[in-house]
Design goal:
Number of strands: 13
Protein name: Erythronate-4-phosphate dehydrogenase
GO molecular function: 4-phosphoerythronate dehydrogenase activity; glyoxylate reductase (NADPH) activity; hydroxypyruvate reductase [NAD(P)H] activity; NAD binding; protein dimerization activity
Main location: cytoplasm
Strand content: 15-25%
Catalytic activity: 4-phospho-D-erythronate + NAD(+) = (R)-3-hydroxy-2-oxo-4-phosphooxybutanoate + NADH + H(+)
Shape: globular
Strand order of the largest sheet: 7-6-8-9-10-11
Bound molecules: 1,4-dihydronicotinamide adenine dinucleotide, ligand LXYGBJRG
Distance between the termini: 62 Å
CATH topology of the largest domain: Rossmann fold
Radius of gyration: 21 Å
Helix content: 25-40%
Largest sheet: 6 strands, parallel
CATH superfamily of the largest domain: NAD(P)-binding Rossmann-like Domain
CATH architecture of the largest domain: 3-Layer(aba) Sandwich
Structural class: alpha/beta
Number of domains: 3
Family: Belongs to the D-isomer specific 2-hydroxyacid dehydrogenase family. PdxB subfamily.
């Protein structure tokens, strides 16, 4: 069996080489029809577009993407071609929640206003959005939820319309999948009309997909102060992102909200589990990310401890200094661990 693996998927080599006779490691953007023709399975990330152009005439019958999002897979083509595909639901949701927690704390410090006086609107309340809601409630925020598919399934009691979020929120954060069409279309969900409907000059946060927000509308909203700030992790047209926007945002990062080593390890494990289940085989593999360099955090407040564990300003400063390195900053991302990898000692202020 021949498997082609994106060479930026960590912690996979030892395990996959026990499963397949032949494994090739290739940069995600370099998967070509000629390369995949004789492959049986692909293990990919968002940088490989799995569509008819890549797959037609190939032997590929299984694709696992070590990501939550799957907008880079043409699912209708795969269905027609009998290619099974799997994503990794929830793998890096705690990592995105960590990004949000640190970001909210930084916003509080910069705005001179308590989070407990603010309302946050969460658009898309799945694996990520639910964890973000938990984080926001812990920080004392009032939380409004918007999720059209869930509202259709579960009824409207727990959900609010986008209009209500636009009127009542001080922070609006997007956690929807990218749907280019259909009843739940999210492509350019935040457009001029949306920004005009905002009442409280909120901060906009996007860690979903760049195309969920129309870049020019966002720029205009920043310039006219319809919104007070933006925190942007995902961009239209990555890696050639809009530099005017990058220079205007409070935090701008290179699509790394989900890049904790914990999230990466989960994604790799889930991709391998899907492959084994597809092949009806059992394999043993232990995937554990390395320990942090400083596993003991000493801080005077929980907020300070949180920012010591992960401070998105570092990623933002690096991207703002070197936007041309967008993909390299992702590929060489430093070790980042989630809370469970640390022990925190709170000390009295000196
Ligand atoms: N920046 C990063 O590193 C990461 C980005 N992501 C992105 O975030 C997205 C969300 O991730 P998860 O929460 O894990 O996905 P999920 O599938 O668990 O949740 C998405 C939620 O959005 C809701 N939704 C769908 N269409 C909607 C619409 N039109 N309006 C309101 N709600 C809608 C769904 O009902 C669902 O509850 C992913 O699809 C991915 O694109 C995910 C992980 C990391
Ligand atoms: O899981 C997702 O969806 C993401 O967006 C990932 O965190 C980023 O994935 P890659 O671009 O590294 O595949």
């Amino acid at each position: 069996m021949r498997i082609i693996v994106d060479n930026k998927i960590p912690f996979i080599k030892e395990a996959i080489e026990k499963i397949a006779d032949e494994v090739m490691y290739v940069p995600g953007k370099d998967f070509t029809p000629a390369l995949v023709k004789e492959a049986d399975a692909l293990i990919i990330r968002t940088r490989t577009h799995c569509n008819r152009e890549l797959l037609e005439g190939s032997r590929v019958r299984f694709i696992a993407t070590a990501t939550i999002g799957f907008d880079h897979i043409d699912t209708e083509y795969c269905r027609q071609a009998g290619i099974v595909w799997k994503n990794a639901p929830g793998c890096n949701s705690a990592s995105v929640a960590q990004y949000l927690q640190s970001t909210l704390l930084l916003l509080e410090a910069s705005k001179g206003k308590n989070l407990s006086e603010m309302t946050i609107g969460i658009v898309g309340v799945g694996n990520v959005g639910s964890k973000v809601a938990g984080v926001a409630r812990e920080l004392g925020m009032r939380v409004l939820l918007n999720d059209l598919p869930r509202e259709d399934e579960e009824g409207s009691t727990d959900f609010s319309s986008l209009q209500i979020l636009a009127e009542e929120c001080d922070v609006l954060t997007f956690h929807v999948p990218l749907y280019k069409e259909g009843k739940y279309k999210t492509f350019h969900l935040a457009n001029d009309t949306f920004f005009h409907s905002l009442k409280r000059h909120p901060v906009i946060i996007n860690t979903s997909r760049g195309e969920v927000i129309e870049t020019n509308a966002l720029l205009k909203a920043l310039e006219t102060r319809q919104i007070s700030d933006a925190v942007i992790d995902v961009w239209e047209n990555e890696p050639d992102i809009n530099l005017t926007l990058l220079n205007k945002v409070f935090i701008g990062t290179p699509h790394i909200a989900g890049y904790s080593a914990d999230g990466k390890a989960n994604a790799t494990r889930m991709a391998l589990d899907s492959l084994c289940s597809h092949l009806s085989i059992q394999a043993e593999y232990l995937i554990t990310p390395p320990a942090p360099e400083n596993p003991v955090i000493t801080a005077t407040t929980p907020a300070e401890a949180c920012l010591q564990m992960y401070d998105p300003r570092r990623d933002s400063e690096t991207l703002k200094a070197h936007p041309e390195l967008f993909e390299q900053l992702r590929g060489d991302y430093p070790l980042r661990r989630e809370k469970a990898a640390f022990s925190v000692q709170l000390t009295a202020k000196g």
